[in-house]
Design goal:
- The protein starts with a helix and ends with a helix.
- The protein is of the alpha/beta class.
- It is about 50% helix and about 15% strand.
- It folds into three domains: about 45 residues, no CATH class; about 200 residues, 3-Layer(aba) Sandwich (Rossmann fold), CATH 3.40.50; about 60 residues, no CATH class.
- The protein binds guanosine-5'-triphosphate and magnesium ion.
- Guanosine-5'-triphosphate (GTP) binds next to helix 4.
- The site of magnesium ion has 2 residues, from helix 4.
């Protein structure tokens, strides 16, 4: 039975934000796959309505505090916002020290904001398929969908597969991002945010070092901003503007086609593992195969294509 999935999907298509919790419940359930498929069919092709912003950075960098301020600014502009906060389930990736972790603050009576924590993906890495599906479904209804992930390096790459714009958030004095960028481990983010600017010189120095590192790589376009999320907040409007500006320059249909291709490959790896990937001749060959398909193909049909090819080889 996929009746509920179609119904919830149709409501999202009509931009009925009150359908979002039900949509997320379906997407996160492990037993309602027909409903999820029906839901995603209803919203297929509508993803370009909303935009997907990835916010990623090391544990405790200040991502959630920053989002409290940014969500507030977006709401003052009248934009609806959904945040999918991916909780690192493994001890390794941690998170801010217990008790020191901020929650995203918002007005609970405001029906145009939705904040949801979701579990991180499994061993095969990265964003859970449910997070990808949730971003796809919610971007049909909300103006902005944010995915908050913890980490730097790997997580930045994964969120970039789903998001139109990726902001990497670092706190002053932590050299992680700088080292990753220099070493080529991290792709250059669309926007770099140094938090805790209220701490003064150390934040300004971090910003200067990041700018210098980017210039030495010939990356002059990337915005590096210093923000403070504690009152009086600083740099928030500039960040909102930088995110908008990045989006304006994008070829969105092409970005979303790439998102669907990456999503199909991720689903395939979840279903068939590394062995399935080998049957396709490896990740690169699989991406090449997908890139040759028409950009409008949806995730389900791309997944079928991969499965057919894997069997044929
Ligand atoms: N001084 C100062 N402290 C901040 C600022 N932003 C965040 N903090 C503090 O930094 C700590 C971590 O902030 P969070 O917003 O939870 O950081 P996070 O990146 O979301 O953490 P995880 O989700 O656990 O990775 C909290 O104690 C915040 O109060 C800021 O602008 N200035
Ligand atoms: Mg957080």
């Amino acid at each position: 039975m996929a009746g509920e999935g179609s119904e919830v999907g149709a409501r999202l298509r009509e931009r009925d934000l009150s359908a979002a919790p039900a949509a997320l419940n379906l997407i996160e359930s492990t037993t309602r796959r027909d409903d999820v498929a029906a839901l995603l069919r209803e919203v297929a092709g509508l993803e370009q309505r909303g935009r997907v912003v990835g916010v990623t950075g090391p544990p405790g960098a200040g991502k959630s505090s920053l989002l409290s301020a940014v969500v507030g600014a977006w709401r003052r502009d009248g934009r609806s916002v959904a945040v999918l906060a991916v909780d690192p389930s493994s001890k390794r990736s941690g998170g801010a020290l217990l008790g020191d972790r901020a929650r995203i603050e918002f007005d609970p009576a405001d029906t145009a904001v939705l904040i949801r924590s979701t579990a991180a993906g499994g061993r095969l890495g990265g964003l859970a398929p449910a997070t990808r599906a949730a971003a796809q479904a919610l971007s049909a209804a909300f103006d902005i969908v944010v995915i908050e992930t913890v980490g730097v390096g790997q997580s930045e790459t994964e969120v970039a597969e789903v998001a139109d714009t990726v902001a990497v958030v670092v706190q002053p004095g932590s050299g992680d991002a700088l080292q990753f960028i220099k070493a080529g481990i991290m792709e250059v983010p669309d926007v770099l945010v140094v938090t805790k600017a209220d701490l003064g010189d150390v934040a300004l120095r971090a910003r200067r070092d990041l700018n210098a590192a980017l210039r030495s790589l010939g990356e002059r376009e990337t915005a590096v901003l210093a923000v403070s999320s504690v009152p009086p907040a600083r740099g928030i409007d500039e960040l909102v503007a930088a995110l908008d500006e990045h989006r304006t320059g994008l070829d969105l249909p092409a970005v979303r086609a790439d998102v669907r291709r990456a999503g199909a490959l991720a689903d395939f790896v979840v279903e068939h593992g590394e062995r399935g990937l080998r049957a396709l001749g490896g990740r690169r060959a699989a991406l090449k195969l997908l890139a040759d398909e028409p950009p409008e193909r949806d995730v389900a049909s791309l997944l079928e294509l991969l499965e057919e090819r894997a069997v044929a080889r």
